[in-house]
């Protein structure tokens, strides 16, 4: 399962996808998700087959890789993309949070799940078009101001970066609430 090495590339696919959508310092994805691949199977097991340990393991592994990157120095906190409480109850865990906790373990940086909340419940985006995804995530997050993180380096993490709509919506909310923070983006996979 080869990684992307995006964390060493200042012009990687994740950066290209997100460039111009919101202000960020750097963006990276650990793996490439292709239909029928082992990565697709890992993500599916993480999200739908009750295998949170997959996310934690990948987070730990990617955390060690990010420590070698010149672009992820000095991260102060990791904030995972939140699930709606209804989906959290159904699944029993947030796959982005378990990935964040794995990253936290290797990076030695805390995870904060209190700052960003999902205010709307929406259906899965896996079968949506780009336009449908953009509309589906409009105004779905609410950010609580944090005196502790207002001007810090925040690593915003998600499981899969496809169109960038979810990350963009969350990032816009974080930046509107804490305009002096610096955002870094990481995901398990780029689809």
UniProtKB/TrEMBL annotation:
Pfam families: Pribosyltran
Gene3D superfamilies reported in the protein's UniProt record: 3.40.50.2020
Domain Phosphoribosyltransferase: 96-176
PANTHER family tied to this protein: DNA UTILIZATION PROTEIN YHGH
Entry similarity comment: Belongs to the ComF/GntX family.
Name the record gives this protein: Amidophosphoribosyltransferase
